[in-house]
Amino acid sequence: MLTLAELVVERGATRVLHGIDLEVRSGEIVALIGANGAGKTTTLHAISALLPVRGGRITLDLGEGTAKRLDRMSPAEVVACGVVQCPEGRQLFASLTVLENLLLGAYRRDDREAVKRDLARMSELFPVLGERRNQSAGSLSGGEQMMLAIARALMARPRLLLLDEPSLGLAPQMVDRIFETILALNREGVTMLLVEQNALAALEIADRAYVLETGRIVQSGTGAALLDDPAVRAAYLGLGA
Amino acid sequence: MTAPPFLPGPKAALAMLGAAAVVAFADLYLSTYAVTLLSLVMLNVALAVSLQLTNGLTGLFSLGHPAFMTVGGYVAAILTYPVRRKGFMMPDLPDWLATAQWDLLPATLVGAAVAALLALVVGIAVLRLKGHYLAVATLGLIVIVRVVINNLDGYTRGGLGLSGVPRLTGPWEVLVFTLLTVGLVWRIKHASLGRAMMAMRENELAARCMGIDAFALKLLAFVLGAFLAGAAGALTVHLVSVITPGAYGIPLAFSLVVMVVVGGSGSITGAVLAAIAISLLSEFARPLEEGLELYGLSQVLVALGLILVLRLRPTGLFGSREPAGLGRPRFSGGTS
Amino acid sequence: MSAYYLQQLLNGLMLGSLYALIAIGFSMIYGIVRLINFAHGDLLMVGAFTTLGLASTGLLPWWAIALLVLVTGALSGITIERVAIRPMRGAPQVTGFIATLAVSVVIENGGLILLSGQPRTFLFPEIMRSRVTIGPASVAAVDLVIIGSTLLLCVLLLLFVRGTRMGRAMRALADNLLAARLMGIDVDRTIMAAFAIGSAFAAFAGLLWGGRFGQIDPLIGFAPGLKAFVACVIGGVGSIGGAVLGGYLLGLAEVMFVGMLPPIYSGYRDAFVFATLILVLLLMPNGLLGRPEEDRA
Q1: Which of A238, B16, B85, B242 has CB atoms 3.0–4.6 Å from B163's, for a disulfide?
Q2: Chain B residues touching C280 at Cβ < 8 A
């Protein structure tokens, strides 16, 4: 579905990604793990067209032989193609209500009836959001905010959901709940690219995974294979070989 | 880092001698008009360079120079005004002021000090906040100063303005003041104080982490700039012998900002050259405007030129740099 | 309430309405691009002269003139954004500020060149000058028109920002730029809309200003523009509700200052307004309804 080929990205004068190759297939959860500063968030920002691409390609396969180059689009056009990001640190519209946040998730959509149905569905998926629909997003707890951030991204009806550090700053039980939710959504057919520092949790739910080190992909494989890999275990899981 | 340049470099020394030669030549051979024009250009240089300290080096955005000039000018003029005409022109003055008739130097210093004091009050209120509040507050200050002087007519003759201020300023006084101003700002820029100011301009958080007291530094730059502007105002009044409440207003504030931006924020050489060029341009554009009856045309052109510079070369002509050979160590500050 | 105080109250509300109309645009624009648009006050002048020009043709009814003034203001705002603000995006904040200052100089001096500095008499329909009796006080009809049309515009704006997609996008953009981009909000178009609406309001204030005070010249926008900024600071810069609140508070305070103190102080009116600014900045820099906000280039 999504292919990154020889992707080179710079932040200001610093080259962060030195030509990475990565693929996400339809229906998968693909995890991108790595240390702080390896370039994980930069990769997602490049896909969402928040950063200019200096080299290489980002291609979105729409099936039936059509494909689009995301690296030449504006952020709004990328969203219109169904590639939606749930950013690090949640980035909610804190002064707006829960409902308004959800509606902004559907900003690019014109199908009002379907948006209404999706709103109802979000209340089913995350009952607490339905209860607090008229409360400001900033007044929610950390876990509730994370659910709102995911729900807001889902409101765009993503083909591909980019998840950046969904476990960041959450209490352990909440992390479990979020990862259960992610897995459940995937079973309903949402394809995901998941960036995580919590490599163990990410690899456990991922179909496949890539390891990013200082702007280069150093390893890839199925989630299970990487969980067993001695180098990965030592470097990212804090476990012995 | 090498020691700050206590002595001017060879080119700067040459420029100083050149300026002195121009003043001497004008003083000896040229008309009063030309000498006055030359003095006003030099005062603009001093004003632009002093604003460079506040806006360029420190990254503040003050539009307050005209207010400080007005305050410095009025205070100094009241101090030097001939005693025999004071009772008629300024009936409300207390006795000790009504009987005082000072020399230019002490009057200028007091005028500058009052301007600096005003800056201190405004600065304490505003400099802790984000930059644009200073811009609006100093703009408001221009209005406040004008309104207050207009209404204190027993001290200032109000809207009529003070005429007949003794002509105590000559081109040599102006030259000395301008060279002192440029030299002072130059030394600050190339000392650790100036580096701290520029560090703060580039990244206030990082500068604070290095132990720089951002607020104190901003206050210093703002108050010192106001002091120099007040002194320039005092000298100007005693050059042209008249001052009115609205003589120095928003258009001047804008011109000075243009000089700093076009010259390059932080570049003293840039400010000097831009001040000379823009002062001469607007002086020579005046007969043209009057001939065509298009008052304001030069301002429009300057403003459009400024927008163009901001779009094409946002760091100005010189960035933050000075050409080599003006001071001893070649210094290149941040240019972003 | 005695007639005198009611009169003063109405005067304050009238002046406050005008400040609020200008302040709204200041705040909307600041909220989204974190930039004080220096040329904003000059749109008042643009609106006033547009009104005068259209009215002196005698061809159009007043409602059409009002509509055209709103459109002219919106187009002027869009032009300012395109020429002086969009190209500076990403540059230090000061750059954008200087650019709007330059635009203000161009508009004011351009006005002087094209229209001359001579004040002109503003024509408003005779009926506006008639007096209306409210209880013990009598007010000019134009004052009621000012207060009424401001309230109408405020309600319309409220419905717009709360109830429409574009309005929501504007608030989202002011709240969180990164998230707004990730939701697919077209940042350029939303900024343009904010400039259009804010500038239309300021131009409409120009129509009302001319009608109320009777004389206009190319520099009339400066002082009200600066005062509207003071109103924004009082209410909390970036908050539309704060701008309206600040506008009315400032209008009432200014009228009280002039009306209740001995006449020798009334000359200090403008000094009072800006001294208030410095005092408010010192005591409550976030204003009444504002909140501390992050920087944005």
Answers
A1: B242
A2: none
